Amino acid sequence: MSNYIINMETEHLIALVSAIRDKANRFIFEQLKARGIKDIAPAHGGVFFHLFRNSELTMGELARLIDRDKSTVTSLVEKLGGLGYIKRERDAVDRRVTKIRLTQKGRLLEADFEDISRRLLSKAYVGFSDKEMEVIVKLLTRVNNNF
Amino acid sequence: MSNYIINMETEHLIALVSAIRDKANRFIFEQLKARGIKDIAPAHGGVFFHLFRNSELTMGELARLIDRDKSTVTSLVEKLGGLGYIKRERDAVDRRVTKIRLTQKGRLLEADFEDISRRLLSKAYVGFSDKEMEVIVKLLTRVNNNF
DNA sequence: ATAATATAGTTGGACATCAAACTAATGTCA
DNA sequence: TGACATTAGTTTGATGTCCAACTATATTAT
After folding, report:
1. Which of A39, A146, B76, B94 is most buried, judged by most C-beta within 10 A?
2. Element spanning B88, H or E
3. Is Protease found in the keyword set (chains A, B) (predicted)?
4. How far is the CA of B68 from the C1' of C6 (A)?
5. Does A16 sit within 8 Å of B144, measured CB to CB?
6. Average pLDDT over residues B21-50
7. What does the mean pLDDT of chain A come to?
């Protein structure tokens, strides 16, 4: 909830959005811990998410996809590499480029991530009709595109 | 967008929420910079927000209000104190307690914050009817309460 | 009243994050 | 071809954040 630069009305949008994000992160962290996965934080989710769908990504691609600075990606990749979840190798053609791939250990997390996602969604949408889910996503998409 | 521990559907809620929060933060930061306020970050907004409305708060109250760890509040208060925006004093009755107040310099920011809030809201809600604004806030409130 | 417990806040360590400065490799252009 | 510019990624330094351990003060229970 770091968005308190807001008046009464803004509080009902941006502060809500911030609070939900914080709570979702905490939920994900709890779920990971409950599965004995103690070395991964929500911030790493983006890296895994995109590597599950792309067998190979460069640092720059990853930075763009998770919308983080390239220096942030350097440190995330170092962390996850040190833990054995991903590996990096220099591109043979363009030697400036670093390619990132999941290791076997990394790929094993996919099922856990999917399950946690399902639980997160279930929790978030308690009491929602299909129509309401659709509406909230549509409205949030419009807010997102307004920036 | 640190919530990529998600499948296709979740992406449409939690990732959206994360993306919006990030963008709102960036917007606020830009607006602050544009006013020549370069030493304040979005994370400080919560402290100001609550101090505009409460002339005096303890560290613990602040921590609860902005939903951050008390040690985080220690460092935020140190930062803002060093910049001259707030001041702390020990409570005479219960000497464990620290009271936080805005300085004159801190109070001067209120108008800027209010203006930034208005602009942020205007931007977020471009194209929204009053009814849609009401709906999105209601639905988000329900999601928030589901956690 | 004294010992045990609880509470307020700080400290230390880890890490995510960004911006700015940097290095290394590639590309361009005269 | 050689100088300049661009691009990929790393390094450095600052800050926000949490947790766990700690200090100091206050409260409670025996």
Report:
1. B76
2. strand B86-90
3. no
4. 21
5. yes
6. 90
7. 89
| Least-confidence region, from A52-56, A131-135, B66-70, B93-97 | A131-135
Tell me the C-alpha to C-alpha distance, in Å, between residue A78 and each of A60, A86, A91, A106: 14, 9, 17, 14
Q: In order of start, what are the domains of chain A with their CATH numbers?
A: 39-108 (1.10.10.10)
Q: Percent of chain B, pLDDT > 90?
A: 67
At B75, is the secondary structure helix, strand, or coil?
helix
Say if residue A56's pLDDT is above 50. yes
The pLDDT mean for chain B works out to 89
Judge whether residue B144 has pLDDT over 60: yes
Protein residue closest via CA to C1' of D7: A96
- A9: distance to nearest CA of chain B, Å? 8
Q: At what angle do helices A70-82 and A59-66 cross, to 10 degrees?
A: 110
Residue A105 CB contacts under 8 Å (≥ 6 apart), including other chains = A84, A85
Is A120 in Cβ contact with B144 (below 8 Å)? no
Q: Write down the H helix ranges in chain B.
A: 8-10, 16-34, 45-53, 59-66, 70-82, 104-107, 110-124, 130-145
Mean pLDDT of A38-47: 91
Contact A117, A45 (CB under 8 A): no
Which residues of B are less than 8 Å from A146 in CB distance? 123-127
Average pLDDT of the residues in A116-136: 91
Residue nearest to nucleotide D26 (CA to C1'): B94
Nearest CB among B14, B27, B43 relative to A124 is that of: B14
C-beta within 7 A of nucleic chain D, residues 53-72 of B: 67-69, 71-72
- Please give, rounded to a whole number of angstroms, the shortest distance from the CA of B84 to a CA of chain A: 19
